[in-house]
Amino acid sequence: MVETAASAAPPVRVALIDANAAARAVVQGLLQAEGADVHAFGHGEEALLALAGDLRVDVVLVSRHLPDMGALELLRRLRQLPGGAVLPVVLITGDATESLRLSALEGGFTEVLLRAAPEQLAPHLRALLRRQVDLQRARILLVEDSPTMAAATAEALAPLGMEVEHVLRAHEALERLEQQAFDLVIVDVVLPGVLTGLGLLSAIRSRRDDLAELPVLAYTGYDERARRVEMLRRGANDYVTKPIDADELRARVSNLVRYWRLLQQVRRQHALMMRQAVTDALTGLHNRYLLDDLGPRLVRRAWRGGEPLTAMMLDLDHFKDVNDRHGHDRGDQVLQALAQRLREHVRPEDVLVRYGGEEFALLLPSLGPQVAAAHAERLRQAVAQRPLAGLALTASIGACVWQPAPTPGAAASAEEATAVLRGLLVCADRCLYRAKGAGRDRSVVEVAQGVPRA
Ligand SMILES: Nc1nc2c(ncn2[C@@H]2O[C@H](COP(=O)(O)OP(=O)(O)OP(=O)(O)O)[C@@H](O)[C@H]2O)c(=O)[nH]1
């Protein structure tokens, strides 16, 4: 059963209340340039009259000084209008002090926007509108066995423009959560069937993926302390007591959806930062921090399975001359071309990183000494046979092959695995040094005796 309130995002409707005609025109122009539908007013009373009548908006922007009332007075009266309790009301001010910002937020404004030059204000207004559109696009899964309650909920949420999907049973809700992304679950705690609302809550919270933190708003018919505590204990973010109050429901739903959006934004940024932390900006290859993370895992796997593991160090020959003769930019291009060349020669199970400067490290599982030596030669030839960024260059390679004794069931500790990785890299580096000493453009391979340890 689906009750859809809205799907395509309509323009965000903004009430702009500012006594200063010139300033108002600037903000109005910026908002309209972003596609907003703007209703501008110079007086508070004028705006309140329109909003108490037919005018419906998604967000209100108000300047601090109005001819007929203060911004706080306007806010108080806006909150009393139908639907006004959840309306985002943004104060726009030229006063940048932290104390003003805090007192405005404490006073009930949703945000405080600093009045600045248009080019500085524009991105803030764009972000404000984007947040509003995001909220309108929210999808809510309503799990409610009473058709009357479901209809009342859909009606109460309609002004928010969110999409409400209704299912009757908890198990249907679990199926829908598998199929589609939702921003909030509203669940009646008492549901017929094997899985109750509380059971659904526990099922969501015990998931091992991001959905475990999906906001859940619980409906209860009993305003009873023990039941409220139980709902919160099981992980409900908030609850509403039946019969529902439309304004209260909208306010709680908006808050939870905002929280979820923020959480997702933080997660995305965190994932990006984690990627950046292990990525070398010049070549796009992973950096040595990824080796520190993945290397011990490969060591433990090799140890467990008695499979060989090879570490290789590859270093361009006379790279300093490239920089000196052709400039640092050309040197960078060479490193990028080299990274691409190496990428073409690694298998999905191999780890390739830029170890630093013009040195690259590889970890290659399951190659015996002869195959590892042949592979090192192939890499050396791959560098020498074609120019890199237009320059004929060579590389030297040091490789160290570790063949663990088959010890089924034995597992290395994390510290041991790290020590073995270091030992392998030191051994490979030693081989590289020998390759350089022997005239460069060659590979030197050594089979580790015993367990390599740094
Ligand atoms: N363009 C560029 N140069 C770098 C980068 N990182 C390190 N280098 C340069 O790489 C050069 C390494 O020089 P050396 O360690 O003397 O080694 P080499 O000239 O390659 O000599 P051998 O290794 O002995 O054959 C130095 O000039 C560094 O400045 C980088 O990201 N970009």
Question: How would you describe this structure to a colleague?
Answer:
The chain is α/β, with parallel strands linked by helices and 454 residues long. The chain has three domains: 11-132, Response regulator (Rossmann fold); 139-272, 3-Layer(aba) Sandwich (Rossmann fold); 286-447, 2-Layer Sandwich (Alpha-Beta Plaits). The protein has helices at residues 21-33, 44-52, 71-80, 98-107, 118-136, 147-157, 170-179, 197-205, 225-233, 246-277, 288-305, 319-326, 328-343, 369-384, 414-437; strands at 2-3, 13-17, 37-41, 59-63, 89-93, 111-114, 139-143, 163-167, 184-188, 216-220, 238-241, 286-287, 309-316, 351-356, 359-365, 395-402, 443-447. The strands form three sheets. A six-stranded mixed beta sheet has the order 1-8-7-9-10-11, with helices on both faces. Strand 16, helix 15 (414-437) and strand 17 (443-447) form a beta-alpha-beta unit. It is elongated, with a radius of gyration of 32 Å. It starts with a strand and ends in a 7-residue tail after the last strand. Mean pLDDT is 90; it is low at 1-7. It binds guanosine-5'-triphosphate (GTP). Guanosine-5'-triphosphate (GTP) binds next to strand 13, helix 12 and helix 13.
